[in-house]
Amino acid sequence: MSADTSLTTSPASTADRPAAHRWWVLAVVGLAQLMVVLDATIVNIALPSAQRDLGFSDSDRQWVVTAYSLAFGSLLLLGGRLADLLGRKLLFLTGVVGFAGASALAGAAGSFGVLIGGRALQGMFGALLAPAALSVLNTTFAAGKDRARAFGVYGAIAGTGGAIGLLLGGLLTEHLSWRWTLYVNLVFAVLAFAGGLVLLARSGRDRDARLDLPGAVLVSGGLFCVVYGLSNADSHGWSSAMTWGFLIGGAALVALFGAWQTRAAHPLLPLRIVRDRNRAASLAAVIVAASGMFGVFLFLTYYLQATLRFSPVETGLAFLPMIGALMVSAQLAVNLTVPRVGARIAVPVGMALAAGGMVWLTGIGLSSDYAGQVLPPLLVMGLGLGHVLPPAMNQATARVDAGEAGAASATVNTMQQIGGSIGTALLNTIATNAATHYAHGRPRSPLTAAHAQLHSYTTAFWWSAAIFAIGLAATALVFRNDAGRDHAGR
User: Fold this and answer.
1) For 214-221, what is the mean pLDDT?
2) Which CATH architecture has domain 15-211+268-488?
């Protein structure tokens, strides 16, 4: 049935609904967002078991992770625009069902090819679901305290989903099977679909608008090349044409996309969305936070398991204090800090705390005590990220017309996904080179190998700290002084 004006959802109309209804919508959106975010990390701990079961090589195992981020990152803007054109509820429900089906396919995979295909389909449907979910939130909560609280919860989910994935992946792999790290999405999907079907309002569709197909091809191809090139850096090296060739080609396609958007009759990403200073600063904060966070999730996971001999479950549990600190900090940021001092101060302070936590982590050793040398910097990291992600996501989607909410939301998710890909490729390459350099000229022994790995972790932590320091400078310079008033909706 076609949409009419009676079905059109706007921030004003949704804001008039009972508060309880809005919070149930937040619960549904948050559940869907958690499903998408944790799938970026939940299979990491399960990889050794999956590799033994399906018999794929060490060189191929990266694609279990990359296939997801590759499809996700390259199709997000297209998914965001489709949410605006076809309706947010329709895209949300389609994304949930498709994501569940892809998860079932990957979980039942009897070969490496089917597993990779399922992971790529997860990313594709995630690219439909994620921007639709965030745009639903953006149009459900009008500016004010409720919106601030909602984005505090949403930002906490976005920031902690990776760590929750590590914990859940460890539990499922250790007690059930690696396949359940994929099957578990069916539980999330059933709840999210039922809630979305009942609670989400049908948004109107603009019958005069058209999909920007040239723009979709340019940006999807460009982001695909960038993510693919970054994924090749680990296996081929930065000097390989398979790395820099795709990176240059991707950058050129993204530049062409930007030029095309200034002339397109119905642009995929209206450039006025990213020209706003607060929104530009917020997008920068999201990409920096996603890049730097991988310095924690990726290398600290290896350190805890390979060096301190933590089990998969113990490794996941080790991240819980950081999750708790992030959630507390997120609520403090959106309800207290940002309304009083503005995002221009709150977000850079969060960046400084995150950088300090990474520097603190460089002091770990081969026999470090978790409670004394790992836990304190994790808590500092959580406090810092809680003051970065929720305010940034709120600012990035604030003051956007309802018809462009999907595009703005997709831009936020794209920055997060591309940031994570950049962090993975850059830090992993740096860490690998650091380990090789340390071992060069030293006698081969288990102790030398252990020290080389430790040196690679701490080198990655130093670089993560540098990434957060860059984010501190960028956000402090770009955010406007009235960020707090914008955030509070005054």
Assistant:
1) 83
2) Up-down Bundle (1.20)
